[in-house]
Amino acid sequence: MNSLKFSALQDRKPVKINVRGEDICVTRIGDEVFAIGDVCTHSDASLSEGDVTDFKIECWLHGAEFDLRTGEALTLPANIPAKTYQVNIVDDVVEVQVN
Ligand code: FES
Questions:
Q1: The CATH number of the domain where 81 resides is what?
Q2: Which of 16, 30, 43, 69 is most exposed, with the fewest beta carbons within 10 Å of its own?
Q3: Looking at ligand 1, which residue's alpha carbon is closest to its atom 1?
Q4: Is 45 within a domain?
Q5: How far apart are CA 1 and CA 9, in angstroms?
Q6: In a domain, 1, yes or no
Q7: From 25, 36, 42, mutation site for ligand 1 pocket: most ligand atoms within 8 A of C-beta
Q8: pLDDT tens digit string along 8-57?
Q9: Distances (CA, A) of 24 to 19, 38
Q10: How far apart are CA 85 and CA 70, in angstroms?
């Protein structure tokens, strides 16, 4: 559980949150919110500091791109998908499910 407000999220401006010890990159695109593991699967960089284009986020360190919807690693040097998390929006609160 976290207190992230949907209305406080800016479009395509990812933020890092921590839920039960897991760093998670949360990105609003239009009326949807996507959550993937914040640590790039290539090395130790924070994906929430990257740029978002369409449904892709680009790691700022070496440029790997990930699909925010599926976590798929779209370009090298990353070849391991990012973990994805289910997101629910309830009364303006963004709930990221961590199992
Ligand atoms: S750390 Fe993300 S592409 Fe290298």
A1: 2.102.10.10
A2: 30
A3: 43
A4: yes
A5: 17
A6: no
A7: 42
A8: 999 999 999 999 999 999 999 999 999 999 999 999 999 999 999 999 99
A9: 7, 5
A10: 9
